[in-house]
Amino acid sequence: MANILVVDDEGQILDSVRRQLASKGHEVVARADAQAALTILQRNPEHFQLLVTDWRMIPMDGIDLIKSMKLFEELDEVAIILHTSADAGELTKALPPGQLERWGVRLQSKDRGHDHVGLLRLVEEMLT
What we know:
Elements: E1 3-7, H1 11-23, E2 27-31, H2 34-43, E3 50-54, H3 62-69, E4 79-83, H4 88-91, H5 99-103, E5 105-108, H6 116-127
Parallel strand pairs: 1-2, 1-3, 3-4, 4-5
């Protein structure tokens, strides 16, 4: 099983995702703050195989977390899922077209099965 870092500023969602991933045998570290998550990744770059992060968080959002990760070559091997209750089209306002794909980031959005079943399926797909 994998070591997964989950980041979401909504405690109920964070706890639910953490529990569901742990029930599948994954070791899960959960953080409500993207800056704290980045610090954990920088201190343990080889520990995590996957990051699951929310997009809209304050003060650092999921996109800024991903941008910051991309500055550190040692974090290149960490797979990333950006999950959001927004439509994928809303991301075009925040990022140039195709940027998530260039980063190798998978998107789970409102119009792409944004639910826990869809997230679990995407996690398993990315880890195989």
